[in-house]
Predict the 3D structure of the following.
Amino acid sequence: MENRITLVGNYGNMLRETQTSSNDYLIKQLPVSTAFVDKKLKIIHASAKWITDFDFINRDIIGLSLSELFGDISKSWKKDLNSIIKGKALLSGVENFYDSQNNEKWFEWVNVPWYDDQENIIGVIIQTKDITDTIFDDVKLEKLEILLKDKSIISKIGGWEYDAVKDKLSWCKITKKLHEVPEDFEPDLESGINFYKEGYSRNTIAMAVDNAMTKGLTWKETLKLITAKGKEISVIATGKPVFKNEKFLGLIGTFKDITDEVLTKAKTEEQERIFSSIFNSSYQFTGILDTEGTFLEINDTALQFSDLKQEDIINKKFWDAYWWPIPDMVKEGLKQVVAAAAQGEFMRSEIVVLDKNKQPIPVDFSLKPIYNEDGRVVSLLAEGRMIKEMVEARQKLKISEKKFRSLYELSPIAYILSDFETGEILDYNSSFEKATAYGKEDVANLKYSDLVPDSSKHKLINFLREVDLKGTYGPFEHMFRKKDGTTYPVLISGSLVGNKKGRKLLWSTAQDISEVRKKEKQIRDEQKLLKTLIDNLPLNVYIKDLESRKVLVNKAELKYCGFKDESEVLGKNDFDFYDEKSALISREEDLSVINSLNPILGKETISVKKDGSLTKFMSSKIPLIGPDGKASGLIGISMDISDLKQQEQELRDLINVTSIQNKQLINFAHIVSHNLRSHTANFSMLLEFLVDEKDEREQENLIKMLTEASDNLLETLDNLNEVVAISTNVNLDKKPVNLNEKIVAAEKNLAAFLKKNNAKIINKIPDDTFIKVIPAYIDSILMNFITNSVKYKDDSRDPVIKLSVCKNEHYTVLSIEDNGLGIDLNKYGEKLFGMYKTFHDNSDARGIGLYITKNQVEAMNGKIMACSEVGKGTTFNIYFNDKN
Amino acid sequence: MTKIKSIAIIDDDPITVFGIKRMLSTLNVSENIKSYVNGKEAIDDFKSLMNHKAEIPEVIFLDINMPIMDGWQFLEEFITLPITHKIRINILTSSIDPADRENWKYYMTKTHHIIDYKNKPIQKKEIEEITKAA
């Protein structure tokens, strides 16, 4: 401490204005190693750190010169210090030294001039920084740089160091791994070298190490090592000598395993081989020529094609090759081709070569110049591709073109080729000529618009606009003008095509549809005829689909359904028109026809419409069979037979009446015959008696009886006349007659008779009751019944006759009820209305009245029913038919 | 010729009845000839005769068409009468209705009595043939 103060004191004039003690104190505290030296390089001040850094703790260094402290300082440092003293500012450098333990220390120094307050340089301020660690880090960094230079996987780069002073070789872990030695393996220089493969590798490394040690040369060699396990690996070995003060300290270096890269290189060679095989096995003929046309390479394809060997071609001239068909002629041409290619032209043409069987084969041949880096043609690549298929395809194309041409000419459709822009017609086929009478000679003078009559030119403009937009147009119906100016309908369409020169061409087709139009008209006419026919048939005709919906109806059906417009009926089914029961039956019929395909023919059906009206039909349903053999619907034909049925019923009724009348006639004939016979029998018998009778009195008696018989005969004939009159008057006209008026008239006529018998008539018939009768008959009928009622009265009571009337469906029924004797209908029912049948002992019963009455009622299409109880009375119900 | 105990004529025509009676009288076959104007009179009388144990006629001349009860209705009832011996019934009619002939055939099968069928006029000779006890 004392020394320092002394020292400071020695430089008191420099630090005059500061407390020396405090200056010294501050300097000692400096965080940076700092020493102050005077011009003679003697230490004046030193920071504690400086003292520690340089290991001067145990020495008093103040006043000692740098040379005394560090031994010989390097010349460069000394020079630097002196130049600072002379006024150069800020110099720095790096120095090393060995400390007390003989450890190498490196430090970086920065020297600045030390000024006094007069700006005079009085010394140097030396700042030092211990960079021993940094230096060694630098060495490491350098190693790392070497390692990284080889752009490979870091893990495969190993390092090593050789300390010449200690003669010690150190391998890092990776290096040991490379050599496949255990981690505790301790190599030395000799053993290290011996790992290199004997021969080139070992010699090279031995030389490199020697050169490094003696001449300070570095090395970097690709060498082979044999690992401890005997594996051969390739490495890049680097090494660098380390010198200090021209003294060789050791070596540092790296290993990099490049075995994989070597393998990769081998792979590349393999690839070359593969290329070569591709070259040889390519489908193309490939050869390489020099610029003079001499073969350098030829692939196997070319050789095999011509059945040649490598030596037949290589080093021979291209044009001398076997495969040229007529060598002499082709030769010159080929020479020129080669010359042109050698000048850098790409030559290509289609040629024919001969295969090994002398067969000509078309080839797409090319000769391509190959340039080197300088852009000079160095060789020529000759390639030939067999184009047999292509040529064949072209041939086919030609054929199909020909076919198209003939199709074009033969087509019944007119084809027209025109220039889209100008409208000029360029070509057309014979069909067009036939249709329009234009000839080939007209092509030049025709424009597309000439084909279109003026009236439809505006349409043409639309077509052209469309084709320009879409590339196609049509088909449209259109008119075309023939050469003679007449027109015909066509269906035209077209499309735009471009030719090679970019000209827009329009292909149009025009199908003559005049025949089609004619046929269409014919079909329309036929349809109209059919429609007229169907509509005017006196039959209901309809077509139904599978759902029984009507898809066609004729007028009769429409009318029956109650509509005027078809649309009101079409699409509807029977449920829309008929009551449910009729509709259900109809639907079942439809289904049976559709499913079985068996038609229903002439079936009598009854259809009840929704309004309740009933129609009898004779209907047929016929399946409509589609192309698939299944029903697609059905045709229905029905005939309204209501009237027919009515007539049939009437006819049947008439037959019944007739047959009844016929029976009655036979019966009548028998009655007549019986009655006449009985009288004639009496005559013949009485006359026979008379002839033989002698007695006058008896004769008179017989004559009297004959007269009686004659009277009886006359009476019988009268009765018969009456009956015959009724039977022959069947056709008398019926008239509506007020029933009560007739009853009143009858009562008047019978007034005396009724009064005599004390008879009473109770009439309950409304005055407005009219019946349709033959007037004469109703008089007779009323008289007869009223008379009978009184005639066969029960003597125990006065006769009462009740008259009443009621209506039923077709008849007005007159009831005549009496309180007379009554008739046992079980016994006499059958004979009640028989001729000459009497049932009571009345002497004036003739058995003719009811017979005639019945005949009269039946003649008016009526009938009589009777009910009776003996002792109570009889009721006759007389049915007057309301119709004719 | 054996005489017949009694004969009945059922006919509503008095001339016919007269004629038959006169022919029968000339033939002199029976002293006892009765006549009825319809079937009902006859059947009623026959029933009464049977009730009195009297004999009913052995031969009956029967007309068909008669009021109240005709020939067929008479037959219908007659064949039900408990008469064990055979009666001869001669149907005598001017009807040529085939239905009547059918009826005759029907009744022939229904009874043990003899039923004959003749058309008027009848001859004396025929009367003789059919007027005999069955």
